[in-house]
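Input:
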Amino acid sequence: MRLLKSLRSRLLVGALIWVACASIAGGWALSYAFRSAAEDAFDARLTSLVSVLIGSVDADRNGQLTLARGIGDPQFEQVYSGWYWLVADRAGVRLRSRSLWDLRLEVPDTPVTATPRVMTTHDPLGREIRVAVQTVLLPNAASPVTFLVSGDGETLRSEIRRFNVVLRSALAALALGLLLALLAQIRFGLRPLERLVHEVEAVRTGKSSQLSPLETTELDALVTEVNSLIAHNREVVERARASASDLAHALKTPLAVIKSLETDGEAARERRQQIAAMERIVTRHLARASAAGAGRHRALALSPIVDEIAHGLQRVYAERDLLIRNELAADLAYPADQEDLEEMLGNLLENACKWATHAVRVRSRRDAGQLCIIVEDDGPGIPDEHAHQAIARGVRLDEKTSGTGLGLAIVTDLATLYGGELALARSELGGVKAELKLPT
Amino acid sequence: MRVLVVEDEAKLAERIRAALVEAGLTADIAPDGVEAQFLGETETYDAAVLDLGLPKIDGLSVLEHWRKAGRKMPVLILTARSRWHEKLAGFNAGADDYLTKPFEMDELVVRVKALIRRSTGHASAILECGPLKLDTNAARFEYDGQPLELTPQEYRILAFLMHHAGRVVSRTELMEHVYARDADSDSNVLDVLIGRIRKKLPAPMLTTVRGHGFVLGRTRETS
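Output:
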């Protein structure tokens, strides 16, 4: 059931069921109670009217029945009102209400009793009537006399109907009110869950490092568990990264030894190529394993990093008399892991320095939604068809200038981690223009 | 020119030393951080090749220690750690160059030589002193375009003097920079070697300054 996949609809469906059941059962019980009470009251009224009628009728010495007093209710005067009375003895009907007019009611044969018998029947017009009958012995009367009073059954039924209408609307209003209250309660009750979702999302996107407590007893146990899970995961990842890095570093010294043992010759050259391939693989994967990637980072000023790298490179290339011009604005900053930034900028600058004749220039540009860091050199440049290769596979473009393409491949890998990219083009300085585009 | 090779992998250290010696340099090996720190501080070196992942004391600490102790020899960091973060840490500790493992032995030698040249104030790979010319990369002397035939020991002495041409180099200084630590160095042998070099030089440009040492070429005002 798709409906039941939502916690909210589960609660709501449950509530609907019990509210409906409670309303129906309650309505039925109330209606039943009212009907019984109304019927009892009606019957009691008819019974008392019978008593009044008995008290109103006298039998004279001849056994003639006379009405001493009338029954006050005007309904008995209205023709065919359903409210009838009659007095009969063996010989037939002796007295009757005006309302009966020409109707003939069948008088049930009843024995002499102390209290009236009540039943439901129909008058000759088909109207449902409730009848109270009692047969009594009157002094002077020749035979037992039967007193009958009837009331309009419709009166009773419409009364019950009216009550039921009121009952139904009241119950419906109550059910609706309950459901609304319940909806509000579900919303309110489930709000910590929504917050929990936001908290988890914040951790995933790196905005926070762990879930903050929700101040909800039931969920805080979960929060604690999730937090320890996050911590555990982080530890596992850290360990995996550390061992990947250790493995890569450990491989490098033996590789250096093997490399130093190789001499000239066809086979040796083949081996050297394989060693170089291993070196590239190790270095590139090491760079990937060490990368922190996008996440929650402080914005770091780029210019000082470039200065620091330039300082180091100028020492390395001291003989070449290189001019590294840092044209980045002092307040230019980007939120990234410091080591990742150093790695990207370092590789770009190093590559530029390797190829440059005299000058390397670093500047930046802000495009829509991205920061573009441009590193250029005035070297010979690379042919366009090699530019793509340089980025894609980390191949060496020139075996003498070692690891050139590898550095760019590492930059590309890192840029991709941050949702950015690296593009190579021809610089107006003459050499390569590397554009590192990072989303902002 | 004496180089300290700090590398814990014995085979690699030996290879590096062999390559440096072949290139006309002298090299000592320190297999761990403690010894590296001690040697760098007590002996005189013209350059150091420093591995960062060392037993006992890590390379960066060794380097910082040297710099704190006023040791200014150029240092080439040799490391498996290829991230820029680590390179920057190396530069900040006072390194002058770095090379990541695995590396080309030729490249290491070229870089070490370049470091030595730079530290002695020479920008080019070719050092000149009058008609005498030293191609540091090829490890070859020429006099007026004619190659000079020298034994390795002679080459090492003349190369050091060439790097410091015009300055009086003391006997001790020369011995320190030309001989490896464990070499059997004898002052008399040095005199013999100097005498042989003098004979091979067509002009009398290597002079002895009595009580002070030797000087190649004309004496510059003390620098």
